[in-house]
Every structure is written in C-alpha cells, then in structure tokens.
User: Fold this.
Amino acid sequence: MFMEQTVTAQAEENSIASQPLSKNAQKRAAKAVRLQEQKIERRAREKEAKKRKRRERAQAGDAEPRKRRKMGGLDQTSFAAQVVIDLGFDDMMTDKEVTSLTSQLAYTYSTNRRSPTPFTSLLFTSLNGRTKARLDAINDAGYKRWTNTKWWEEGYDRIWTSKSDSRDGDEDLDARRASVVYLTADSEEELMELKEGEIYVIGGICDHNRYKNLCLDKAQTSFIRHARLPIGRYIASLTTRKVLTVNQVFAILLKWVETRDWEQAFWSVIPKRKFQGKTIGPDVTPEGGQVEEEEGQEDADGAEEVASGEDGEENDQDDGFPSSRPQPVLSTA
Assistant:
C-alpha cells in the first residue's frame, strides 16, 4: 500500500513537471538565463581588459605590482568629521529598494576609501532586518571587514545617550548631541560648510520619494540640528527631480571637503542626465552620468564587486555610482 502511494505521488510530480510553462513564465526564465550569461560574459571581458592593461603597462616599462594597494599607502588627508548612515527604515522599503540601498552603501564605503580627503570614519546605525540579511549574504558578510567603519544595531541616538561611548560624562554627551546634523531636503536651514568635529547623518532609505518630511520629523523628534544641501542656491537651473542616492549625497560631501566649493561638488557628482540642455563647466567632469540599468541588476552586481575587498585592500573593479531607479528620502526639491 505504501509503495502504491509513493508511485502515485511520483507520477503526480512528474505530471506537474511535464506541464508546459506559461508564456510569462517562459519569458522570465529566458530573461534570467540571458542575464546570467551576460554577467559571465561581462566578467570575462573585464578580466581580459585588466590583463591587457597590465601587458601594456609592462611593455611601456610602467608595470605596477600585482599586490593591491592598501588605504594606508594612498596620499590621503583625513577630514576629522564623521558621517552616519541611518538605516532605521528597513520596514518602509520593498525588497528591491533594500537591494538598491545595500548597493549604495557599498559604493559609499568605496568612495570614502579612495578619496584623497576621506572622512575619518563611517558609522552605520539601526542595522537590522532585510538590510542586514542582504549585507550578510554579499561576499560572506564582507562589510564586516570594511576599514574605518562601525556597525550598530542601535539607533544613532546612542551617540549622545551611551556613556560607554563618552569619555567626559554627561557634559560630553550633550556636546556630542549638539554636534549632530541630520541632512534632509525638507529642512529650512542650508548647510553652508562642513566642520571637523561634527557628525552628519544621511537617511539610508530608497523610497521613490514616497515619504515626506520623514528625516526632518526624525531629527526634530531627536532634538538635533538639521539642514539641507544648498543645491538650489548654486544650481537653480536643475531641470529634473533633484533626488539623490545615498552614495551621491556622500560623494557631494566628500567633494566639498576636497574642493571647498559646493558648485563644483554638485556639478561633478549629480548625474548629467539631470542637466538636460545645460552646459557643464569646463573644469568639472560629471561622475554620476551612467545610463540606468534594467531593474537595478547592474547595481546589485556592482555592489558585490565593491564589497569584496577585504581589510581595506583596493578592488580591481572600478566603482562608480549606482544607476538604479530607487531613490532615498533625501531630495532637494
């Protein structure tokens, strides 16, 4: 009797498996196969291009050592301020937006690591839920090996509420709270300069701009300062939505530290597609003008490459800025 039931169950499974897929299912399957093939081909082309460049440098007598350069070997001058990425919005995003956000975090870290004027440290707070699970799944939790970064499960208010992080008691805690500035486009205050010793918070959320006043409300509830980037003051002619990704906001801050020039920082980071019909300054090269990839697929792949560097080593993958569609709450509209 048992054998008959087993044979019957197997026959039913075989019957289900033999049923033809719907047209939509066939299209999805074909698309998945095509994307995987394209990914393999792209990796092969990248490896071949790297080998070709090494051969050309060797022939020119300018061969570089194969050992990757560490951050300490770069000519860098750190800016003594801290940037916090507030990840306390995990339950307000879709799975696709979480994937896009984790990609932006990887690019943010890579940008700081490669900058001639990096911030002294990056702090990621409220790490939990799908965001943590996604980061854990990339390169065997490679983010835990990122240099000069801290990861807290607690919120950013631990900065001024935890005496274990303070040396001088309550007075120092009050001073640390006063040094925090939450960046949000909904603020009436403009951020005119960055100062060493201060802490700048970026809202880590991709939400297609669904939520209004989200970061502003959070800053006001925490009784901390808030400010917006002065994009409108320097680029009033921006023709499209002034919505920036987390890593683009961070790159703008880095560029200001390097140049002390907001206008140059905006022109060099904001994607050039947002300046339709406008002339870009001759001394500025846009860094974020890639064409948007389909559904953020390239973005996710790129994040895995960026996040794979261990112990502060440079990764051979050139890291640009994410080109996926999801956007953070921080906008300048």
